[in-house]
Amino acid sequence: MRADDRATDGLGTDDLVEPRRGGDDLEERPAEDSRRDGPRSQEEPVPALFRPEQVTEFRTRWQDVQTSFVDDPQRTLRDADQLVAEVMQALASTFADHKHGLEAQWQRGGEVATEDLRLALRRYRTFFNELLRS
Questions:
Q1: pTM recorded for the entire structure
Q2: Percent helix, percent strand, percent coil in the chain, to nearest 5
Q3: Could you tell me where the Basic and acidic residues compositional bias lies (predicted)?
């Protein structure tokens, strides 16, 4: 890699230890930041995709992975792959929990009031937007 390629590839040494600001934060964000199609009502909480302690653990482990690169690059890549897989599994688990909760709101059997269905659809929209934002 040429020196001028490194300058334009978008990553610097600071990116290896500290995450970039303003784009990859996994923690719960204020409601107004997570929806692009208008203000959020008080009824629509932003679902957290990860528990705060998970975020801390993942970030700590990611820092450890990155700092071990010089000593053992191949092992570092295996560790990075494993950590990313764990984050994806945690996200899938969170998604399944949220989905079951949403389904419970409208799959109660019998007649479900239109207003309840409307509220369930709003919650789906909120969760959908949160998934795409992340």
A1: 0.56
A2: 65, 0, 35
A3: 17-43
